[in-house]
User: What shape does this take?
Amino acid sequence: MSEISKEYIELIPNLFKNFQRLNQKSSCLTHLQNQILEFLFMNQQPLTIKQISEALNVPKQQMTDLIKRLMDQGYITKSQNRVDKRSFVIELTEQGKFSQQEKWTKIYQNFINDLTKLNHEEQLDLRYALHKVNYLLKKMEES
Amino acid sequence: MSEISKEYIELIPNLFKNFQRLNQKSSCLTHLQNQILEFLFMNQQPLTIKQISEALNVPKQQMTDLIKRLMDQGYITKSQNRVDKRSFVIELTEQGKFSQQEKWTKIYQNFINDLTKLNHEEQLDLRYALHKVNYLLKKMEES
DNA sequence: TAATATAGTAATAAATTATATACCAAATTC
DNA sequence: GAATTTGGTATATAATTTATTACTATATTA
Assistant: This one.
């Protein structure tokens, strides 16, 4: 039990550098704006302001302005929620998606580059192990 | 080649929730203070102000104050670098380490909890796969 | 239907973070 | 040894983020 956990915990520092890269603000976005776009991108689906607010621990009062600025800059759209007329649904625009994908591209290229330090057999091993980890972590999350 | 990368990239969202948890500020620390402690904790070794500044993309002018406040609050120590008398070496105090470990404890408990959703065989698989991934990722980083 | 809870907005002050410029002392280069 | 670079500090200003309180309109509940 604790052996698995140890390995899991260790995994995080191993990916830390790349996460740092995600945090880096892309030119014209503030830290929080970036967090919001990132969160939308990760979730791959429209979210309400409240959902974002709670997940990121940003008070809803702040969200109003943040959302407005992101909208003005063309990163997201905001439309009424048909189910609940009080709330709004936030979605990434193409530009918004692109701004996030850019960061991933850098991570991707970095990884490809480092990969050459492994021989062919190790590469196959890594691929299989990553696949297994992803599969099982996902399974764990599905409560 | 691109198959491995795909799995690698996918790994990051799978760990995202826990990373979010790391970002959450613990009571009396500001966002940047937290980032600095986290970075020191991850690196497991003393760093100069410049190293932190560059890695976190925080201008050195800000560092002076940030470091001072962290020192005043007892999270870090600052001592002259013997090799280069212009620079200083920053280290986590016990309190500083503890403040970071707390967050990991939560991640750990969360993981242990989710683990019950896998059967025994899957747990063994996960452990082995995680071990493999960690081993190979580390090997890749050692240039 | 009246009372209450919820999603979001508005506005303001205080704290944090970002940007720019100038400075000192030790290190490096010529 | 003089000139230049580098690690860090000091200071002022602007932008962002946090915190507080009050408000509107829709949902929910009794």
About this structure: Chain A touches chain B through 53 residues (CB under 8 Å). Chain A has a mean pLDDT of 91. Residues 30-31, 48-50, 53, 60-61, 63-65, 81, 84-88 of chain A lie near DNA strand C (CB under 10 Å from a C1').
